Amino acid sequence: MPFDPSKISLRTTRRSRETDPEKIFESLTLRGTVENLWSPQAAALRGWHKERAKPDVVIEMNTGGGKTLVGLLVAQSLVNETGKCVLYVCPTNQLIEQATSKAHECGIEVACYMAGRWDSREVTDDSRGPCLTNYASVFNGKTIFDRFDLGGIVFDDAHAAGNIIRSNFTLSFDHGTPLFKEIVQRLRAYFTTSNQSVSLRDAIDGNPRSLLFVPMFEVRKLAPTIAKLLLDAKVDEEKETLFAWEHLKDHLDRCVILLSGSRVEITPAALPLHRLRCLGGGARRVYLTATLPSPAEFVKTFGVETPARVTPKGKSGEAQRLFIFPAGQKDGDHRTVAKQLISSRKTCVIVPSTRAAAEWQDVATLFDGPTGQAGIQRFAQARGSEKLILAARYDGIDLPGDACRVLVLDGLPKGSHLLTRFLDEALQVASLRASHSAIRVVQAIGRIFRSNTDHGAVVLCGTEVQRWARSPANQGFLPPLLQKQIQFGVGLRESVEAGQTTNEDLLAAVLSGDKGWDEFYRQKIDAFDIAASAAPPSWLVDFAGREQRAYQKLWEGNAADAAAEYASLADDAEVHDPRLAAWFRHLEGYSCELLGNIGQARTAYVLAANVRAELGRPKTDGATAFASATVPNPTAQAKAIAQLFEGKRAKVVAMIEKLVGDLAYGEQTNPVEEALRLLGSLLGLSATRPDKEGKTGPDVKWHYPTKKAGVALEAKTNKKETTQYQKKDDIGQFHDHAKYLAVHHPGEDFRRLIVGRHLRVTPDCHPPDDLRVVTLEQFQGLAERVKTLYQVLLESDSGEPVEVVAERWLHELGLRWPLCVDGLQSKLAVDLQAEEVDGEVTR
């Protein structure tokens, strides 16, 4: 029979070639709430269209400013231009569903890929529209998108991506699990011999304040054993671990290992994103972001140093927020006030961990991540006074508009990953710490404020988060409007305390849209100053990019170039942030070790440990001391040591052994105080016990007159493991010591240390920001290094003057002032004041 075309009904489609995103919008059939582009959306699209040829473009818009529609139009434009697969990447499946709904409202065809399943894949295959997926699907070790020829990737909520991406490169084993126990057992020997046995016991006991870093020279030795443990546990088959294992399986010896009271983590020191083929090639990348507090974090997250930036003007997303500071001296007081205030209000409560969630479970329900998406929807649609707790979830869950208008932020948000905590709290890298907190605060607030029509309240619970928010230095990392709203809230708290209004009345006014409140807000909000921008200095952004490149070389086995780059980084960082420099120096040491250059490796390791003992110190051997040619002329400290040595000689080692024995926890602090005094003298410092000698001042004072500096030591070694540092008896003393030091040493630089266990600081205290807590084990280790110094002096036969030998070994052993104090492992008292410090990874 002849062919009869009349019997065939053939659907024909013509793929659009239009690339102007505004024209694409004009061609759409709108079926939902979207009627027109807002002015900032149109400006964003025009700005991107102008820069579209650039490989990386950041579009910064306020949360709620309409980023989703902008991103969908950009993605469609790239589909039309390239005829290839274009990804639109969301943090969570919930946000994929929201973006899909928005696309359908606007008549944009989309495919979806999540949880290993496709929906409408033909849309992607035919290049009719973008594919909506999540970060986990793109960044996991077995991503299917490495097989695609991508035309572009649009990253939604790029400011929230860091933790999510890091999770895809991290193996995490919870406290109490078999792998946790097995790995800890392999680490026990190192931590025991490095004066960290008590900290290790704290981690094993589940103490949330514990945090230990395994030095890279130990990681290298343990990597084969740990690899076997992991394979025996079938991490290459279990769903929770197989995707991260794919990234790390051949590079365990180049990962860092951290241990806390909640888990063990194995993760890269920097993200090796260069291994993902889908991020390379000709695919153009667009990053949709709320105001990003730190460009350095953007580099760390995506490995991109100089993206083009589009920042449209306009008020979209400028939600009206009331900040409430509950009154009270303690965190528990704040919660009591907050619970009463929100009793009849639908509320989302965000806390740092599931432990902290227990404080709210009498009035609220804890969100269960793996099975709780339906719970989010139920909460969003509820019309009563339901309350939902999110534990360590500062991004990825949106409750805009009437879904929720009251947010309780209980505690300052902490890093979800142990590496972030280590950099912030252990290394105390000040250049990173404040911006990390600001990012998480902005993310948390963005959970309920999604547009400029939103209005609601943020209740700040906890002395730590309240103090952080009130600091002008911290506010400088926040968007301008958010700064003004926080200052407005501080002023309103003073009005509440003066009896001029109540928190209940303020909350009712903002939630009801009271006209009097709206006018009052409009008149007052611009009266507040904006703190000077605390954007990171250019050097920090530069270092982030250089660190990324150095680690890529280390990851690929190019240890020679990695060592050179880390050495250059450490040298340059020295003048800006010595603690950040120490981090780079440690990785320089490891790169040298891989090269077989053991002497240079050891030198770098020691230099790093001298600044921050947390990084680990290789064992000392007299044959491996620094070359004398680089040692400067003897300091006053070395000369004082030489004079003491000449007077004591053989007796000095026995003196040190006795003082090490006296550095012990117990009811009596007098032996500890005398041991600390003697240790200071042996370090070549002027060491006294002011409190004993003059009934005023610190327990022990080390003074270095030449540098007009010193340290005030307060021994709290009689406190039990179950106690806390109290306001009057412990922390308050340092305010008195400040007066003593001002009188006896005006204008001099004195450190302040508590010598004792890492106990919690009660929330009714106001510890100085620089007050640190150092355990006795650290002073025992310091004494052991001092013992090594004097043993070398006893055995030296070089013919050099004693002060010259002493100066060399002060350098070698990290005993020069002020490193002998500043380099000790420590925790800031303000960090110990937080009830919960161990954030949980959101998977």
Offer a quick outline of the entry.
The chain is built from 35 helices and 24 strands. The chain is of the alpha/beta class and 843 residues long. It has four domains: 21-165 and 275-310, Rossmann fold (3-Layer(aba) Sandwich), CATH 3.40.50.300; 170-270, no CATH class; 320-489, 3-Layer(aba) Sandwich (Rossmann fold), CATH 3.40.50.300; 636-824, Restriction Endonuclease (3-Layer(aba) Sandwich).
What report would you give on this structure?
The chain has 843 residues and is of the alpha/beta class. It folds into four domains: 181 residues, P-loop containing nucleotide triphosphate hydrolases (Rossmann fold, 3-Layer(aba) Sandwich); 101 residues, no CATH class; 170 residues, 3-Layer(aba) Sandwich (Rossmann fold); 189 residues, 3-Layer(aba) Sandwich (Restriction Endonuclease). It contains 35 helices and 24 strands. Strands 4-3-5-2-6-11-1-12 form an eight-stranded mixed β-sheet. It has a six-stranded parallel β-sheet with strand order 13-18-17-14-16-15, sandwiched between helices. Strands 19-20-21-22-23-24 form a six-stranded mixed β-sheet, sandwiched between helices. Helix 31 links the parallel strand 21 and strand 22. Helix 12 packs parallel to helix 23, helix 27 packs across helix 33 and helix 28 packs antiparallel against helix 32. The longest helix is centred in the last third of the chain and has 20 residues.
